[in-house]
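Weekly puzzle thread! Below is a chain. First person to post its structure in C-alpha cell form gets bragging rights.
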Amino acid sequence: MSLLTHDLERPFDWAERPARISKARRAQLKRIALRALAVLSMGSVLAALIALKTAIYVWHLRA
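Winning reply:
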C-alpha cells in the first residue's frame, strides 16, 4: 500500500459528523486567521515596495 494513497481508501464519514468546535472558539479562530492573513498581506506589500525601490535605485545607478 502506498503511503500517498492509503487514506483515500477510508470512507468519508468525517463529513457527516457534527462540528466539535464551539461557535465562540470558531469565531476566535476565524479572527486569528484573518489577522494572520492581514499580516502576510502587509508583508508581501512591503517586500514588493522594497523590490521596487531597489530596482529604481539600480536603474538610476546604471544611467
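Puzzle host: Confirmed. Bonus trivia for everyone else. The helical segments are 23-62.
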